[in-house]
Amino acid sequence: NDVLVKIENPNLVMDAKNFQYVFEMADQNGRTLASRFGFYSLPAERTFLFMESAVQSAPAVRASAKVVEAEWAKKSNIAPPVLRVEVVSYGPTPAAESGNFFVEGAVVSESLARLSKIDAVIVLYNASGQVAGFNKIQLNDFRPFEKRDFKLIWFSPVEGTVVRVEGAVGVEMKYYLSR
């Protein structure tokens, strides 16, 4: 079981400089299978935290995400990278191809930032507005003003009819190379 949590920093003038969270997955005995901690959030940033089942040693039956500390600071002088996801097409995978569902699109940089690693999370929504599925792609050595195409395939079934696709790009500040 993969787990997805949406995080938003609604503050326009404050960085969440030391935003500490605990993101855990546990088995039926309550034993922690995997966990992640903390990141840096720029003003008005919206991203997804994603934990894959591949990091687990056994099936997870419970997941939790909890903020344990947030240190706020005035907006830094670092110009945040401006990245967006363009969704070009999506739908059931054609019979001649493997998988159950696909999304084709591009990650686009609109800034001078050079990034050693970025994660793009794609979320599928059904007609009820519920998450029908999600997936992640990692892109390395992303250059200023680059547009990089992608195609994500879902091999597990997608729940319901997909009516909307949302993408968000996350960058941890340690991967920010230059302005």
Structure, described:
With 179 residues, the chain is an all-beta fold. The chain is built from no helices and 13 strands. It has strands at 3-8, 14-26, 32-41, 46-51, 62-69, 72-74, 83-92, 101-109, 114-126, 131-142, 147-154, 162-170, 176-178. A hairpin with a 4-residue loop joins strand 9 and strand 10. It is globular and about 50 Å long.
Set down the secondary structure blueprint.
Layout: E1 3-8, E2 14-26, E3 32-41, E4 46-51, E5 62-69, E6 72-74, E7 83-92, E8 101-109, E9 114-126, E10 131-142, E11 147-154, E12 162-170, E13 176-178
Antiparallel strand pairs: 1-4, 2-3, 2-5, 2-6, 7-8, 8-11, 9-10, 9-12, 9-13
Quick summary:
By secondary structure, the protein is mostly beta strands.
> Which segments are poorly predicted (pLDDT under 50) over 5 or more consecutive residues?
none
User: What portion of the residues fall into strands of 2 or more residues?
Assistant: over 45%
Radius of gyration: 17 Å
Oligomer: single chain
